[in-house]
């Protein structure tokens, strides 16, 4: 069983930055793929980025160049550093864990078995 706890959401102005954190427990983080997803009001859950120690990282087109995913192995934390935020980045952000691969820019929610509770990100002037 994998447990995931997100934190780090908040409200920022366009152009600002936030760092989201996903703390993992229950399974060694090196055995997992971790994905970040977001869900805007009235829309489906969209893959943003994924990471695994085996495959490295991948980003959706909207995240590439602005977001960075990384691992702090000492904390069992997978973080998502989000820079140059835009109003369209607004939504609830979820981290998720699975055992498939992180090799495509299309981060598929069907590859993930465990989900955190979500953290709200609001980008507005």
Please provide a brief summary of the model.
By secondary structure, this protein is mostly beta strands. It has strands at residues 3-7, 10-12, 18-25, 33-39, 45-52, 56-59, 67-72, 77-82, 91-98, 112-115, 119-123.
Structure description:
Helices cover 0% and strands 51% of the residues. It is built from no helices and eleven strands. The chain has strands at residues 3-7, 10-12, 18-25, 33-39, 45-52, 56-59, 67-72, 77-82, 91-98, 112-115, 119-123. Strands 2, 4, 5, 6, 9, 10 and 11 form a seven-stranded mixed sheet that branches. Strand 7 (67-72) and strand 8 form a beta hairpin. It is globular and about 40 Å long. The termini are far apart.
Largest sheet: 7 strands, mixed
N- to C-terminal separation? 40 Å
Low-confidence region ranges: none
Q: Specify the number of helices.
A: 0
Cα shape: globular
Strand content: over 45%
Helices and strands, in N-to-C order?
EEEEEEEEEEE
**Helix vs. strand class:** mainly beta
**Radius of gyration, CA atoms, in whole angstroms:** 13 Å
Throw out a few tags for this protein.
125 residues; mainly beta; seven-stranded mixed beta sheet; four-stranded antiparallel beta sheet; 11 strands; 51% strand
SSE layout:
Elements: E1 3-7, E2 10-12, E3 18-25, E4 33-39, E5 45-52, E6 56-59, E7 67-72, E8 77-82, E9 91-98, E10 112-115, E11 119-123
Parallel strand pairs: 2-11
Antiparallel strand pairs: 1-3, 3-8, 4-5, 4-9, 5-6, 7-8, 9-10, 9-11
């Amino acid at each position: 069983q994998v447990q995931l706890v997100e934190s780090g959401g908040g409200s920022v102005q366009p152009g600002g930055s936030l760092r989201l954190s996903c703390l993992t427990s229950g399974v060694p983080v090196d055995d997992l793929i971790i994905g970040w997803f977001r869900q805007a009001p009235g829309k489906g859950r969209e893959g943003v980025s994924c990471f695994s120690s085996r495959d490295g990282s991948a980003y959706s087109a909207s995240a590439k160049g602005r977001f960075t995913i990384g691992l702090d192995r000492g904390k069992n934390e997978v973080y998502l550093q989000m820079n140059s935020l835009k109003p369209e980045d607004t939504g609830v952000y979820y981290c998720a864990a699975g055992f498939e691969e992180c090799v495509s820019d299309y981060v598929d929610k069907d590859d993930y078995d465990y989900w955190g509770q979500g953290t709200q990100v609001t980008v507005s002037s």
